[in-house]
Design a protein that fits this description.
By secondary structure, the chain is an alpha/beta fold. The chain has a domain at 442-480. 18% of the residues lie in helices and 23% in strands.
Length: 481
């Protein structure tokens, strides 16, 4: 087992014991994020502080020596005055959660930081280049930064022990400029940078690299990328700008361990699917590719594909008739923002599909799902789709173990179903409207109680605890006033 697989098994063990809670599941039903209960969190923090493993720095707690520093203040807490007497073995991890730290006050040159392993500055919005002493922390294993501008002066190659590097821009209109030799780091396993940061595949084989987001491919005029240089990749994101020949990405077939692939297209007139895909690909995401629906047959032939996400007009056209021999192992399908009008599914289409998510499919009014789905389909989610689509799915789910969930609907205009002025009501608008209705009923009850001489405190007991949030309290107070 790999280190990641061992860690995942430990995490599931904690979940089974009830010490960790599942917070969010991925489209295919796997664990995406988790959390701990407030009481469990309090116990963990208290015991970590008691054992001198953790120091939480905020307005109520002064800095002190500890292995882990959790900094939650608006000022930079690591100064000569607070940590000048610390030994080299004290501080191993620094996590910054304050968002208004002035960058010029941040110094990382103190001796107590020389053995630092983890440095997370992703919550800080740096407006200029990062402190140059970051690259002197040669024992770093994990580094996360958020900035704008150029980072060419930072000598990342000095971080010989770095395993994970995350660099993002906090302002979309100010893209980052990174050195093109970052993949030359000898121990690097996980690299995550913005889409428009040019990264090229290394000239030497990098067997340690497992995750790469994003690899930018500008045009077919350059030399074709040789994915044999990163043979052990498991996750890959490709951002394409410029016209490519179908054979330009043919070396993807050599990524035998790749399980997750994302392809996003920028300024390209026409995109063609690669002639070959990684043989063991399980998850595929396409965005802004503008392919005809008939190209779905090529994707359907991927033998191990389990999750497919097509976003932001990845496929265009009004009609889709899937191939009967495709998608034999597909368990989850997401279609987001599409002009699809007619989708006919019949016997042998998607034989093991379990989850279907449709978002912003404004033209699709009805979906024909035949009996081949009934034994496997467990969940259908509609977000901002026609109410008629939701109605048809509810008829299918009647008497069967199938859940239909809607998040807002696109409602037809009365007496004019062909009108283009249909309104889309978001889930937030629905929540506010329902909340106002419930509060209105409660106010009527309050008036009746007041007429009978009952105190306001008794009226408050009629309100459900779930309604007692900031909005309802302000809303009710204004009405009472």
């Amino acid at each position: 087992m790999s280190l990641e697989e061992v860690a995942e098994s430990y995490l599931h063990d904690l979940i089974n014991r009830g010490l960790v809670q599942i917070n969010e599941l991925s489209l295919d039903g796997n664990l995406k994020s988790c959390k701990v209960h407030d009481r469990v969190h309090e116990i963990c923090v208290r015991e970590a502080i008691k054992g001198n493993a953790l120091c939480v720095i905020n307005d109520n707690h002064a800095p002190k020596s500890s292995h882990w520093l959790s900094c939650q203040t608006s000022h930079w807490p690591i100064t000569q005055a607070s940590y000048g007497n610390c030994t080299l073995d004290d501080i191993r991890s620094v996590l910054i959660f304050g968002k208004d730290v002035y960058y010029s006050k941040c110094r990382l040159a103190y001796p107590c930081l020389k053995l630092l392993r983890v440095l997370d500055l992703s919550f800080l919005k740096w407006s200029r280049s990062m402190p140059s002493e970051i690259t002197d922390l040669v024992h770093l294993r994990y580094l996360s930064l958020s900035t704008i501008g150029s980072l060419h002066e930072l000598q990342f190659l000095k971080l010989k022990n770095l395993l994970t590097l995350i660099v993002t821009s906090w302002m979309e209109k100010c893209p980052l400029h990174l050195r093109c030799d970052i993949l030359g780091l000898p121990q690097l396993r996980d690299l995550r940078v913005d889409k428009r940061c040019s990264q090229y595949l290394p000239c030497l084989v990098k067997e340690n690299l497992q995750t790469l987001y994003w690899l930018k491919i500008a045009s077919s005029d350059d030399e074709k990328p040789n994915f044999r240089m990163v043979p052990n990749l498991k996750e890959l994101g490709i951002y394409i700008e410029g016209q490519l020949e179908p054979s330009y990405l043919e070396s993807l077939v050599y990524l035998h361990r790749l399980e997750k692939l994302k392809v996003e297209v920028g300024r390209v007139e026409r995109f063609c699917l690669p002639t070959s895909f990684p043989p063991n690909l399980k998850k595929l995401t396409l965005r802004h590719t503008y392919l005809p629906w008939k190209e779905m047959d090529t994707i359907g032939r991927l033998r191990h594909l389990e999750v497919l996400k097509v976003k932001d007009f990845a496929f265009c056209g009004s009609k889709w008739e899937p191939s009967k021999q495709g998608f034999r192992k597909l368990k989850a399908l997401l279609i987001s923002r599409s002009n699809l009008k007619y989708w006919n599914t019949s016997f042998n289409h998607f034989p093991v599909l379990e989850r279907l998510v449709l978002r912003y499919c404004w033209e699709l009014k009805q979906i024909e799902i035949y009996c081949s789905f009934f034994t496997t389909l467990k969940l259908i989610v509609f977000e901002c789709c026609y109410s008629s689509l939701v109605t048809s799915a509810n008829k299918i789910s009647s008497g069967r173990p199938l859940r239909v969930r809607k998040i807002g609907t696109k409602v037809e205009m009365p007496n004019n179903e062909s009108s283009e002025d249909e309104s889309v009501e978001s889930s937030n608008e629905l929540s506010v409207r329902k909340l106002k209705e419930k509060v209105s009923k409660s106010l009527n009850a309050f008036k009746e109680l007041k007429r009978k001489g009952v105190l306001v405190g008794s009226w408050l007991k009629l309100i459900r605890p779930s309604l007692m949030n900031k909005f309802s309290i302000v809303f009710m107070s204004s009405c009472i006033g």
